[in-house]
Amino acid sequence: MKIAVYPGSFDPITFGHIDIIERAVTLFDKVIVTVSQNFEKTPWFTAAERCEMIKDSVSGLANCEVDHFKGLLVDYVSRMHGTAIIRGLRALSDFEFEFKMALMNRSLAEDITTVFMMPHARYTHVSSSLVREVAGLGGDVSMLVPDHVARMLKKKLA
Amino acid sequence: MKIAVYPGSFDPITFGHIDIIERAVTLFDKVIVTVSQNFEKTPWFTAAERCEMIKDSVSGLANCEVDHFKGLLVDYVSRMHGTAIIRGLRALSDFEFEFKMALMNRSLAEDITTVFMMPHARYTHVSSSLVREVAGLGGDVSMLVPDHVARMLKKKLA
Amino acid sequence: MKIAVYPGSFDPITFGHIDIIERAVTLFDKVIVTVSQNFEKTPWFTAAERCEMIKDSVSGLANCEVDHFKGLLVDYVSRMHGTAIIRGLRALSDFEFEFKMALMNRSLAEDITTVFMMPHARYTHVSSSLVREVAGLGGDVSMLVPDHVARMLKKKLA
Amino acid sequence: MKIAVYPGSFDPITFGHIDIIERAVTLFDKVIVTVSQNFEKTPWFTAAERCEMIKDSVSGLANCEVDHFKGLLVDYVSRMHGTAIIRGLRALSDFEFEFKMALMNRSLAEDITTVFMMPHARYTHVSSSLVREVAGLGGDVSMLVPDHVARMLKKKLA
Amino acid sequence: MKIAVYPGSFDPITFGHIDIIERAVTLFDKVIVTVSQNFEKTPWFTAAERCEMIKDSVSGLANCEVDHFKGLLVDYVSRMHGTAIIRGLRALSDFEFEFKMALMNRSLAEDITTVFMMPHARYTHVSSSLVREVAGLGGDVSMLVPDHVARMLKKKLA
Amino acid sequence: MKIAVYPGSFDPITFGHIDIIERAVTLFDKVIVTVSQNFEKTPWFTAAERCEMIKDSVSGLANCEVDHFKGLLVDYVSRMHGTAIIRGLRALSDFEFEFKMALMNRSLAEDITTVFMMPHARYTHVSSSLVREVAGLGGDVSMLVPDHVARMLKKKLA
Fold first, then answer.
1. Domain residue extents for chain A
2. Catalytic residues of D, which ones?
3. CA distance C72 to C79
4. Integer Cα distance of A56 and A145 in angstroms
């Protein structure tokens, strides 16, 4: 069984992430979407809230699991018996950072492969930080995130 | 069975390509390496020669097949019952072109997904055109291609 | 009256170009879409054919004219009493080339300003060369160009 | 009357910004330079100080107004009856961010168009953050900002 | 005597930096590796600790000195009678920032030239921030930094 | 004695190249400007003409020699006892290509180092191909190349 891990902050999950997940589940036998812990930035949503929003977004996908983790990504992927790390590439600036991380992770774990996927053109500009900025300024996020996420954003801002 | 197609000119196959193939076969049940026809550029090697060099390079990989094709890539992938197109990303300039092709192919065939993989850092600068240039100027290509390819290059230049 | 010139090869015009034109006519009093002559590449379509296809695409826009020119762009823009050159930016690789051309044109004619516009996200991957490639391989171009252009491509390939 | 809005932090205004403004006023009937509020970063100068420095820099331009705003940019532009948002592009890194914002703003307000302009080559490296850094280290900023801005920087640092 | 200055945060020094230094000493009569002070970010290591780690890394190089400085880089280089500033370029994102800084420094001191060098391909992904992140997550940094630096990281994290 | 080699097509030499050379001679004891042979493209000017134009441009620089070569660059640099290859970087697109060539040359000759220099901001957009294009369209090239080169261009076009 081929297992792929899709790590990220998902703060919050967007239509761009969901597009990646819906395609990943057609390529791998199991896809684990996992919320990573980032020491530097304080997230808007707790890890529990973020997992909840992901679960609500992928409930229709049989071979998709939701999790969260601490520590080195490659150690987590090994524990999960994963062979692939999935990363989304929307833009050039993603590329540089992702390129370095992929080389780094390969040097740490030669048997785990990073594969990159691109979301649909209509989600090129969609990112969690944009969602937070638009929501924070009182803009409409209904084209960026599912309704249940939009509601969570409103609650958080209230 | 998950089938992935890895298309390219492979004029000739390099260690960078081989690195991608060796990792792809761990992620998919079958990987078809396929030589594409490019109308604009005249290749150094015929499609038959290029297939031969690929076969010699991947002979140890059980779930890897070698083929060539004409016409639209997505039509070929459909005929082969593939769900994934594999593309290597070495550098930023690759990214732009590949990004456009991935969006294009998705608009032509929504059920086929392009996945990108990066070769090892030591192959970042290796490309078929560089191999041809170095070989053409009498340089040593032993760090860029397998021995059997180096011999083919010498023969072609003689 | 503010006049803007939108130069290009338009070989052939695509939905991406049309999107730019439809927005440009809301910003300027007159927009001249002009087919440039390129010494290096032989176009698929003659200048007359390309102008014809553009005219058919913008017939609904009152303040849009179609033309073609030879020689330096800035000389042409001066003759037309234009103050702006419009260029589309779809991707990073466009940016580099366009950046150089804008600086060059400014050094040749200080009173003419290049303004850049981005087509809709759904046209990010659409270019004339892609249209020619897909059409040449027998693919469907109905999402890339208007029907009358698709028919011209078929005729040209027949 | 065609109205364009040029938003930014202008913390402080530089010769690069002024170059953009001086060209924008030749393309549009009215240009509103507007100081945006950024929640994440604390500016060096207050919104009032920044507006004052902009006014002193554009006093010779009849069709240029200076303002500041809170909330979503597209809402502000609509209130001002603007049809264009002007953004400067100095470098590739600008491009990525600006590309996303332009797509985002278009998805929020289809009738407002972002146009990009490039400052003169001699201002390619000039940014407000560079001005602050050089000033903070005691360097000479006379080639980067007008005299009245240089004086404000000295006062702020004293 | 041609003197080159290699400034940086070196927080901490990595194999990538050391690769640059080992090549720079073959090109210039003297190379001064100098720790710069960065107002915005708090470093993990003090300037003294960073100098110590650099000294331990370059002890075998006769024409290499280690120093630290405050204020404008070009002023420091002038005081040291340097004619060149050395900067490493690993990736595209470096390029943009470095390009601006090189133009800026040239405008501040016309007689000082910035030269760029690229580390070996195997260090493309190595940066001080990556070292800190991997060390912070308990990963193995032995392929990224010398042993004495790895020990310092462990001590700092304890 | 530190010898640096500055290879290129120089078809023709521009103010951008000359700016690089004038700075390189302050960093190295001898700089050899050398015209490379490119199999793929037919140059406008013969190697002899290109050398002549370079010589006329650098006649005032005591430690600068002009030459031409065939074959692998690193072999030529070794024969000339050079330790450095100088390359100009004007833009991002240069970077990608130059990055690959630098890695390649390092893998072919570990003891030769590529150093990159940036021309003055006012020459960012200047390239030999732009000079040929502007001259070919009858534009003024006096801001791009020295007078003696402008005369050669006119003669060639006559």
1. 3-124
2. 17, 41, 90, 128
3. 11
4. 12
Which residue has tokens 């990646």?
A20
**Residue ranges with strand state E in A3-156:** 3-8, 30-36, 64-69, 84-88, 113-117
**Residues of chain C contacting residue A124, judged by C-beta atoms under 8 Å apart:** 121, 124
**Contacts with A147 (C-beta within 8 Å, 6 or more apart), sequence order:** none
Q: Which token pair is B63?
A: 């779930």
C68 is catalytic: no
ipTM for the predicted complex: 0.91
Give me the sign of the Cα torsion angle B38, B39, B42, B48. positive
Give the residue numbers of A marked as catalytic: 17, 41, 90, 128
Q: Using an 8 Å CB-CB cutoff, list chain D residues near A142.
A: none
DSSP structure class, residue A121? G
Closest Cα partner for B86 from B126, B134, B34? B34
Is A130 in contact with D104 (Cβ distance < 8 A)?
A: yes
Question: What is the dotted CATH code of the domain comprising E3-124?
Answer: 3.40.50.620
For the entire predicted model, the pTM comes to 0.88
Q: What is the pLDDT of residues E42-54, one digit of tens each?
A: 899 999 999 999 9
Parallel, antiparallel, or unpaired: how do β-strands B84-88 and B64-69 relate?
unpaired
Closest Cα to residue F42, out of F116, F141, F152, F132?
F132
Rounded to the nearest 10 degrees, the angle between the axes of helix E92-108 and helix F92-108 is 110
Residue D138: which region, alpha, beta or left (left: phi > 0; alpha: psi -120 to 50)? left
Given the structure tokens 């790590």, which residue do they identify?
A7
Report yes or no: C32 and C82 within 8 Å, Cβ to Cβ.
Answer: yes
Question: For residues E70 and C23, what is the distance between their CA atoms, to the nearest angstrom?
Answer: 51
B12 burial level (CB within 10 Å; 0-12, 13-18, 19+) = buried
Q: In this structure, what are the phi and psi dihedrals at residue A135, rounded to the nearest 5 degrees? A: -60, -40
B95 contacts A26? CB cut-off 8 A: no
Q: Which of C99, C101, C104 to mutate to test the interface with D (most CBs of D within 10 A)?
A: C99
Render pLDDT for B20-71 as a digit per residue (tens, 0 to 9): 999 999 999 999 999 998 666 789 999 999 999 999 999 999 999 999 999 9
Q: Which residues pair with D117 in a beta bridge?
A: C115, D88
Which of D91, D93, D130 is nearest residue E104 as measured by Cβ atoms? D130
Q: Encode pLDDT of C101-141 as tens digits.
A: 888 899 899 999 999 999 888 888 899 988 998 999 888 99
